[in-house]
């Protein structure tokens, strides 16, 4: 057993990014000379407390390993599953069984397509979540008015009612939990057939309340093709629509 807990990054990168609408998965899109995935991983490595980052790709992925073959603090695991929850659980079980990580080590699960994580946000999460028994995640309070929609038989989407935004937050990543606790929570959710939208949702099913740590707009997730341009602008890599900053 480890004498003191360490911090490890875990980046699930086995998704196909169907909503992104490109030939290649969004994590391999170019972002200022590096792939989105490389920038997301580098963001985790910006804090010296992160001992190592594990990138989990699909078993048939031929590109991922080559991106990090010269980065000693990154290990690629071709253990991707059908869904994100399967990918993260596969990796955690492998790492625990092979003692790459220990039960009480902290694992920071970070989206492969969230390259705008700053050193400041990462440090804030580690500092605050380390002091919380359940761990925590970066998140932002909802600022916009929330609408519950209805869809007609013709496919039109209409506003049905307004939902209170009081105490509502938008989850970001990294999400930081003890390795064993997260592994058990994910496994139980899969066994019960519970929906797992993020790692925190699995922890919550155990009756545990993770700490919400203030995130940032720059830490947005790339989902659709236009999001890539927004992130380029936020990171000052390329002006949006060719306009000067």
TrEMBL record:
This is 2-C-methyl-D-erythritol 4-phosphate cytidylyltransferase. Catalyzes the formation of 4-diphosphocytidyl-2-C-methyl-D-erythritol from CTP and 2-C-methyl-D-erythritol 4-phosphate (MEP). HAMAP family: IspD. The record marks 165, 221 as: Positions MEP for the nucleophilic attack. It is an enzyme of class 2 (transferase). InterPro entries: IspD, IspD/TarI, IspD/TarI_cytidylyltransf_bact, ISPD_synthase_CS, Nucleotide-diphossugar_trans. The keyword Transferase applies. Its EC number is 2.7.7.60. One of its GO terms (molecular function) is nucleotidyltransferase activity. The record marks 19, 26 as: Transition state stabilizer. Keywords: Isoprene biosynthesis, Nucleotidyltransferase, Transferase. Pathway: Isoprenoid biosynthesis; isopentenyl diphosphate biosynthesis via DXP pathway; isopentenyl diphosphate from 1-deoxy-D-xylulose 5-phosphate: step 2/6. It holds the Pfam family IspD. It catalyses: 2-C-methyl-D-erythritol 4-phosphate + CTP + H(+) = 4-CDP-2-C-methyl-D-erythritol + diphosphate. It comes from the Bacteria. SUPFAM superfamilies: Nucleotide-diphospho-sugar transferases. Belongs to the IspD/TarI cytidylyltransferase family. IspD subfamily.
